[in-house]
Structures are given as C-alpha cells and as structure tokens.
Amino acid sequence: MRLTFYDKLFASLIVVFSLVLFVINFQLAAGPAQRYISVHVDNQFVMEISFDESTERQLTFPFGPDGEHTAVLEIAEGRVRLLDMGRALCPNGICSGTGWISRDYQSIVCVPNRIIIAFSDRQGDGMDVVDGVTH
User: Fold this and answer.
1) pLDDT band at 127 (very low <50, low <70, confident <90, very high)
2) 13 located within any domain
3) Among 5, 15, 93, 105, which is least packed by CB within 10 angstroms?
4) Does residue 14 share a domain with residue 43?
5) What digits encode the pLDDT tens for the residues 25-77?
6) Are residues 39 and 25 in the same domain?
C-alpha cells in the first residue's frame, strides 16, 4: 500500500493545524497581567489577593478551629506558594511541597488544615470552591 500525494498532503495539514492550535492555546493560557488568588479555610472565604508580575510580599492568614494558627502565603514574580507550617500542623507537608503555582488551573490544598488556595478569575466574587469539572 503506497501513500498518494493527497494522503501526504492531508497528514501534513493535520500536523500544521495541530501545531497552530497548540501555539494559540499556549498564548491564551498566559492570562492577564493582573491576577487574583482566593484563600478558603474550612470552606469559608478568608481573603482575595490582587497581584501582578512586580508584586513581592508575604501575607499571613489564620486557620484552625479558633484561628489560633497562622499560615504564610508568599507572592513573587507572578507566582504564589504556601510556606512550610511545620510537621506538628501539617504532618506530610504536601501543601508547602506543592511549591510555586502560576497557572489558573493550579491550586494549593492543605487537607489536614482544610486550606484551599486557588486562582480567581475576577475580583470580589469570593470564588466558588467547586471547580468546573465538578459542575
């Protein structure tokens, strides 16, 4: 079985079309310069932070049954991470081990302390904790 000229042309067009769509998707994922992060503790909205590429700061927020513990959120270069809370508060340290997040589909979740840190697409909405897949 031999490939004809049209078979080769069709395969080439599919490859070129796929590459163009990949580049367009990558450009759309870059997102706007101004971004928002929402913090939820025990399924309650705690705060929303606005930041951009030049923002560098550390924020603290309370967590725990009576808010007696404090977590530190670091923002730098358009990225966000949760600093280590210690083994007594978070035994496995998976949330701080997540490292920096910078894409809209990424989040930091600390299951033992019920903390969710995720990107929000608009300011002041309090962002639903349920994601698009769950709907």
Assistant:
1) very low
2) yes
3) 5
4) no
5) 877 766 556 788 888 998 888 888 888 788 888 988 888 888 788 888 998 88
6) no
- CATH code (residue 109): 2.60.320.10
Contacts of 115 (CB under 8 A, 6+ apart): 39, 40, 41, 63, 71, 82, 95, 108, 109
Domain range spanning residue 60? 35-120
Residue 79 and residue 101 in contact, taking contact as beta carbons nearer than 8 Å: yes
Indicate whether 127 belongs to any domain: no
Counting Cβ atoms within 10 Å, is residue 39 exposed (0-12), middle (13-18) or buried (19+)?
buried
- Phi/psi of residue 131, each to 5°? -90, 180
Q: Give the tokens for residue 70.
A: 């404090």
